[in-house]
Amino acid sequence: MRNDRDGRREHARLDAVAQRVDDVRADVAQRAGDVAQRAGGVASDVRDRFSSRRHAMARYVAQRMVLKPTIWSITDVTVIDRDRVEGLTGGFIVVANHSSHLDAPLILGALPRKLARYLATGAAADYFFDVPWRRQLTELFFNAFPVQRGSGTPASAADATRASSSGASAGSTPQSSARRRAAAKAAARGRQGQPTVSARSLLQRGYPVLVFPEGTRSKDGTVAAFKPGAAALASACGVPVVPLALIGANIAQPRGRSWPRPGRLPVGVAFGDPMRPHDGESVTDFSTRVRTEILRLKDANTARILGPSDPLEGERP
């Protein structure tokens, strides 16, 4: 009798243990499923300052209540054919000539507000991201991400690896050293869990980007040859290019000046129709076609902005 009772108790204990094992297994499976679901959500919907509504509101205040009123009050701005971009949604690439620090503020202020809200700007990593205060202001006002000057590529860990492998040779210039430092800082941010952002990744997520394909500011207002990066991005991501001509910016604030000249000098922003590569068109040919359209917009509107009796763009009045 006693043995029967002991046997029943042992069976009960074993059943309880088995039930607890089943419960633990089910709990582990549930947790694994939750982790997988969260991982999938992160992959498909990255949360960062480029998608954050809070950051977008901060940019709205910085851009529309500080930056635009300031630039519009110290220069005489004319915006031409802005309605050509009214129907755009999702990712697209704004491509413009580059001759002044006024260029990005003019573009942000000239774009319709809904298109400028999430526009991200590629900025030189060796200048705008070399010190914390300048990086923070650039990110706030221009929603900027770092690119290596002259390459049009993101300041990624790969850039840092290539730069560090070359070493700080005796013939290194201060500029090249600054570029290596900026790339190393970008790599460090990536190692700390801060994702490296590129124009391609932003376009794939549906956000527009601003690119200056000349790679640097013109010294005299002439439009240099375009690097094909913007055209390649448009082809790879299936997004349109918005050609945009900036007129008079290099006169109002030429390269080397930290603030526009006094007198509210005239500047213009001329929009072209969105462009896409033709079937079979090479990246180089598409880039050339975009540059040709920007030159056409610039030539067609220069007299309207600067006046027929004003000096040629690029010359000092």
Describe this entry's structure for a reader:
The protein is α/β, with parallel strands linked by helices and 317 residues long. The chain has a domain at 53-119 and 207-306: Glycerol-3-phosphate (1)-acyltransferase, CATH 3.40.1130.10. The protein is 51% helix and 11% strand. The chain contains twelve helices and seven strands. The chain has a seven-stranded mixed beta sheet with strand order 1-7-6-2-5-3-4, with helices on both faces. Helix 7 (157-166) packs across helix 8. It is elongated, with a radius of gyration of 27 Å. The termini are far apart.
In terms of topology, how is this protein built?
Elements: H1 2-44, H2 53-74, E1 76-80, E2 93-96, H3 103-110, H4 113-116, E3 120-124, H5 125-128, H6 132-142, E4 144-147, H7 157-166, H8 174-191, H9 199-204, E5 209-211, H10 229-237, E6 241-247, H11 249-252, E7 266-271, H12 283-306
Parallel strand pairs: 1-7, 2-5, 2-6, 3-4, 3-5
Antiparallel strand pairs: 6-7
Helix pairs in contact: 2-3, 7-8, 10-12
